[in-house]
Amino acid sequence: MELYGKTLGIFGMGRIGLKLAAKCKAAYNMNIIYHNRKPNPRAENELEAKYVSFDNLLAESDVLSVHTNLSDQTKGLFDRSVFNRMKPSSIFINTARGGIHNEADLIEALHNKVIWGAGLDVTQPEPMDRNNPLLFMPSVCVLPHLGSATVETRDKMAIMAAENIIAALHNLPMPQIINPEVYSSVHFDSIE
Known about the structure:
Layout: E1 7-11, H1 15-28, E2 31-35, H2 41-47, E3 50-51, H3 54-60, E4 63-66, H4 80-83, E5 91-94, H5 103-111, E6 117-120, E7 140-142, H6 151-169, H7 180-183
């Protein structure tokens, strides 16, 4: 499938979704639509992205890429009923968490040509069973949850971890904080 001028749908227009959208806009002049908890003004200003309803995201996306967290609201969200609302020519991509899509329903949708293809960096469960039908489908690309496994990314991850350790050892605020609400409640000087 030629990507030039096609519509990229992003489910979860946060930091990662925004980076993907920018690359696809620059490389393929893709139209960008997205669904998020709230509109993302940066995406709209920089990429002319359009905030749409979830139903419109499904109906209009040629490529639909998932970039959201796994929560009670997103667990199993991409199931038979959702795949049935997508274009038969669409590609479903999940690089977020495997639990966001229902794998049996995805296999069925691909087998019955409800959607054209899938790209998965995450599966449910991980690792996949080596006989999983997705591994044998020509319109599916499965990576073993290693989308971030470049030398540069892994080096940066190691540096970030080292910076946090050094800061903690010197009783300084850590520069990389994933959950600030927990971090702010811990008194490190009381930990022996």
